[in-house]
Structures are given as structure tokens and as C-alpha cells.
Specification:
By secondary structure, this protein is of the alpha+beta class. It has 12 helices and 8 strands.
Length: about 325
């Protein structure tokens, strides 16, 4: 009875798969036992899952390659085949590792990449899926579509994360008022409304800034609402700058506009401005037009000449060159 030549690779492969399953189960138990947020739980579990999968595949390749006679050729063929045919999938797997290891984004984060914006709902081995926001929808709200893009796009492409690290963004509300309006009053109204809206999370935002400054070279900046004024050709633009949860931008601006307009209507010294155009109407000036003699003498038609009917000179030109038929007949006679 001949000995089975691949007994060790088969048994070794089975052992590797069992160890991989056991490692994944143990890692999940350890992650579940930790008191962490759902986003961090998702990130750690996906990172461990990806790492175990990559190591398992590498161990299986090494196990089976040891039984081949020409190992150098084997590895050369494997490398060339992977480089050519599996370039994008391998880059996507590497991108997934980079996403979790580099804390680029995780499930639930709001991101923008390649002008695509949305909330991340899943990070697979090859693709990231997110719920789209914007597009034909005014404001950062869901459009209902699911976007899927390759994880490899994180290499060499800027990834804008709205919710990572800090968790807040700055937004602005602009109100145009006329030149005669009480600018100081409208500034105080916008500041008070901004403070009312941001009062609940200003303290949390300040703590996150202090945390960022321990890890990054983040300059000191204010999180209190502030007002800025700009004079335009038609009105005075008053702008309120405030921080807001990225997923509440539209609700925040709607609340600020509604409350500000409610207080503006109670005042008579504030008027909303708009783009205007001044028209100046002059009465007819008979002297500028001149009298009848002047208008008669100032004749544009006479100055440029009246167009005349063009005379057909083709026959006269031909007669000069070859002579007329009547003249030729008299000469012959």
C-alpha cells in the first residue's frame, strides 16, 4: 500500500482551520467582554477577523508549498498570478486592514470620499457600504440609496470623516439685513439663539478638544457661537458661526432660523435685506432734442447715404471686350 504523499499538508490544513476558528471565537469573547462603544466593538471585531483570515490563508499556502519540489518556481508563479489577476482584491483587503488599523473610519461614521458622502453601515473584505446623504436632497439627509465602493480607494484618496476624533463640525447661518437695520440687535439675537442651541453639548465638545490636544498638534480654538459682519453692495450680511452634530445640521439651521425670525418680527428696527436695483427716471428734455430745424439738418440717412439700386454692367463690359453684335454686322457689310 503506497503512502499518501499529502498527508501532512491535509492534516496541517485541518489544524490551521480549527485554530483559526478557535482564535476568532476567543477574540469575539474577549471583545464582547470589554466595556466599549458599539462603534469600537465593530472596529475591533472586523480588524481581528481580517487579520485571522489573512494569516490563515498565508499559513495554508506555506503548508502546501513545502511539499512541492520546485518551491522557487511555485512562489514565483503565485506572486505573478496574484500581482496580475488579484491586484484590486488584494488592495481592497489591504485597504480594509488600513481602515481599521489606521482608525480611518468605522461603522456609523459619516464620511466623504471621491465626492461620495454617507454614513458607513458595513466594511467588508473588498467593499465599504454606506447610506448616501445629499445628492438631490437639500441638506445632509439620507437619499435612500446605498453606496458601495472598493476599500482600495482609501490609498491615495482623501477621506473626510465628519464624526471621528472630534465629533462636531462648524456650520454657519447667514442673515441679510438692510443698511438702516440695528446690526447690534440682530447680532445679539443670533448669539442668544446659538447659545441656546449649543448649550447642551458645549461642555462635551470642550472635553473632546482637550483630548485631541493630548494626541495631536491641535491649536486652541473657541467653541462658543460667534457673529461676523460683512458689508455688501445691497445689504449687511450677519453670519452666525456655531458647532453642531454633523447628523443634525439641517435641524440646527432650521431651529436657528425659526427662532431668529420670531424675535426679528417683534422688532421694528430690523428689516431683512435683499438684492436691489435703483432705477432713475428723468423727465423728457425738449431742449436736448433740439428744435425742428436742428432735427431736420441732423439727418443720419443723409450722412451715410441712401442705398441705390445696383446696375447690371455685365453687358457693357462684354461689349468693350468683344464688341457688340450690331457693330460687327455693319463691319461685315
Amino acid at each position: 500500500m503506497s503512502h499518501f504523499p499529502y498527508e501532512l499538508p491535509v492534516l496541517g490544513s485541518a489544524g490551521i482551520l480549527v485554530m483559526a476558528w478557535g482564535g476568532a471565537w476567543l477574540a469575539r469573547k474577549v471583545i464582547d467582554a470589554r466595556d466599549i462603544s458599539p462603534k469600537e466593538h465593530y472596529r475591533l471585531y472586523r480588524l481581528v477577523n481580517t487579520t485571522i483570515t489573512v494569516l490563515t490563508i498565508a499559513a495554508l499556502i506555506v503548508m502546501w508549498a513545502s511539499k512541492l519540489q520546485f518551491k522557487g518556481q511555485f512562489w514565483g508563479l503565485i506572486g505573478a498570478g496574484l500581482a496580475i489577476s488579484l491586484r484590486e482584491p488584494l488592495l481592497s483587503i489591504a485597504g480594509r486592514i488600513a481602515i481599521f488599523a489606521g482608525h480611518m473610519y468605522s461603522g456609523g461614521d459619516r464620511i466623504e470620499i471621491n465626492k461620495l458622502s454617507g454614513d458607513v453601515i458595513d466594511i467588508g473584505f473588498f467593499y465599504t457600504r454606506m447610506m448616501e446623504i445629499g445628492n438631490w436632497i437639500s441638506g445632509d439627509q439620507y437619499s435612500g440609496r446605498t453606496i458601495q465602493f472598493a476599500n482600495a480607494q482609501v490609498f491615495g484618496t482623501p477621506v473626510f470623516n465628519y464624526t471621528r476624533t472630534f465629533g462636531y463640525i462648524w456650520d454657519e447661518v447667514r442673515l441679510p439685513v438692510t443698511y438702516a437695520s440695528n446690526v447690534k440687535a440682530i447680532s445679539e439675537i443670533l448669539k442668544s439663539v446659538g447659545r441656546e442651541y449649543t448649550r447642551e453639548f458645549l461642555q462635551g465638545a470642550q472635553k473632546k478638544i482637550e483630548t485631541m490636544q493630548r494626541y495631536f498638534m491641535v491649536p486652541r480654538f473657541e467653541v462658543e457661537p460667534d457673529v461676523y459682519i460683512r458689508v455688501t453692495d445691497n445689504y449687511i450680511e450677519v453670519t452666525l458661526r456655531y458647532i453642531v452634530d454633523p447628523k443634525q445640521r439641517r435641524k440646527a439651521s432650521s431651529f436657528i432660523y425659526a427662532e431668529a425670525f420670531r424675535q426679528i418680527r417683534e422688532r421694528k428696527d430690523i428689516e431683512i435685506g435683499s438684492e436691489t436695483m435703483d432705477l432713475t427716471v428723468h423727465p423728457p428734455d425738449t431742449e436736448a432734442k433740439g428744435n425742428a430745424a436742428t432735427r431736420a439738418a441732423d439727418n443720419p440717412t443723409a450722412a451715410v447715404g441712401k442705398p441705390q439700386q445696383m446696375e447690371d454692367t455685365t453687358r457693357q463690359t462684354a461689349e468693350k471686350l468683344i464688341g457688340s453684335p450690331e457693330t460687327e454686322s455693319r463691319k461685315a457689310a
